[in-house]
Amino acid sequence: PLLLPVKIELDKIKLQFLESNQSYFERLGIIVNVVNNNSVQIRQFPALLRNKDVASSFSQIIDTLFNLNEANELKEADWL
């Protein structure tokens, strides 16, 4: 768990993607709560996935997975 939760804004379509795939994110150790229609609160984030800070690492991960999904190239193995 993080000492202080990190709030990050997402556009609506990425927020929907996150909500529909929340169980996969939880398997990765990423625990988020939806705050409102355009932001989430990151409660847990594995140190091994942190490239820089939590917010930028999370943004990079969700952007990559979202883009793979949009191109119909996202497979369950991508979550592992």
Number-wise, the strands total 3
Radius of gyration over alpha carbons? Answer: 12 Å
The count of domains is 1
**SSE string, helix = H, strand = E?**
EHHEEH
Helix fraction by DSSP (H/I, runs of at least 4) = 40-55%
For CATH, the homologous superfamily is named as MutL, C-terminal domain, regulatory subdomain
Q: Class, according to the CATH hierarchy?
A: Alpha Beta
- Find the CATH topology: Ribosomal Protein S8, Chain: A, domain 1
Q: Mind describing the biggest β-sheet?
A: 3 strands, antiparallel
Protein structure class? alpha+beta
Unreliable stretches: none
How far the N terminus sits from the C terminus, by CA atoms, comes to 20 Å
Can you count the helices? 3
Note down, in words, how this protein is organized.
The protein is an alpha+beta fold and 80 residues long. The protein has a single domain (6-73), classed as Ribosomal Protein S8, Chain: A, domain 1. Helix content is 40%, strand content 20%. The chain contains three helices and three strands, in the order βααββα. It has helices at residues 12-20, 22-27, 54-70, and strands spanning 6-9, 31-36, 39-44. A three-stranded antiparallel sheet has the order 1-3-2. The longest helix is centred in the C-terminal third of the chain and has 17 residues, at 54-70. The radius of gyration is 12 Å and the shape is globular. The model has no long low-confidence stretch (mean pLDDT 90).
